[in-house]
Amino acid sequence: MKLTNVKIVTVVCEPILRTSIVKLSQNLGATGCTIWEIIGRGDGENESEQIPGAKIKMEIILNKEVAHDFLQQIAENYFNNYSIIVYMSDIQVVRPTKFSAPTTTLE
Amino acid sequence: MTSIEMLKLNLLSPIVLAFLLGAIAKLVKSELSLPKELYDSLSIYLLLALGLKGGVELSHSSFDVIAFPVVASVALGIITPISAYFLMRKIGKMSGIDAAALAAHYGSVSAVTFIAANQFVSNIGFDAEGFMPALVTFMESPGILVGLAIGAIYKSKRLLPNSESIIAPLKKDLIRPQNLNLPKNLFHEIFTSRSMLLMVGGLIIGFLGGAKAYEPVKPFFDTGFKGALVLFMLEMGIVAASRVASLKKVGFALTSLALALPILHGFLGVLFGTLVHLSVGGAAVLGAITGSASYIAAPPAVRMTLPEANPTYYLTASLVVTFPFNLAFGIPLFFKMARLLHG
Q: Which domains does chain B have, with CATH numbers?
């Protein structure tokens, strides 16, 4: 089976950022995302929620070039004022067109 | 009834004691907590019940009776964030952004404090006017909006030269997520918040149907109401106690202000309530609404609009200091004030 390399970006952040991060990813061609409500703690001193530690975890699959832009924009816009962690990993998918609005096939 | 008796009655009410139990559970590190879904469900139930009852009352109140209390509520919603801002700046020595964030919280209201106050006055035989829930909705939004507006003005005037360090420089060709938030999303956030939607929606449903249409659903919304509130308070106690450690970060000045503001604002509320001819119970409840600080509706709006403000300050002040203070001492105090002003 032919597999295609793409990136999966994981964002752990305050629930308040949910809508804007989803929009950001959509603007870069993401076609969907998976979101969990989670509880956790990090190095940050700022509790942002009524329920301490309440965060969301988002996973978004993007193609390589766009994934870097996505990380960069998140860093520029949210790192200063919000509790947020973002990282990305390499994954292989069967149907790359499913994860990218403007189709870009990568090998 | 003497003041001591009233205080005792309030402190020994299941509402206050359930809050205490929740707080103790957290402090002794019990694993007790309400499932988030139940907490959400209870708040939906309480807010909708509140709206429905208020709406039914509105349906048989005349315009003359409610017009002035509505005007008073909007006025209080505008005055209290301004007074909170100046006190936080001058006495609390808070930064402009933090003071504005706190102003939005103290300008807005706590629906739970309102419900507790309503229960208190009705327990001692001084029922407040039935349309009080409508007043809550009229005070809630102006409070948040004025607080956020102060923050926006402060930022544009004082922070512009240094804003580069706070808001990362953005490339023109990049999408700017802040633009997605402001100002359209802000209004959206405030007016479609759960509390607004349920209370205003409940008011409209209650108003349209009137007492007759409310009758079949009344057992569900009336009978369970006080019990649901007790359960809700249990979780509030847990949540508040889990933030107690933050009091150290908040400091003495802000803690003192978080005690002084409800008294000052509460007095204003009682005074305005008395001037617009609310009953003793109604004026006391308006005092409790005005003296309360938001911890559900305001935090997300503030976080979105004034992300530089430290959430530890506003959440701790409103949830750990002001809310329990009002619950235990503020409400009987506002009642006492209302009695005195009514002569």
A: 3-19+33-156+181-341 (1.20.1530)
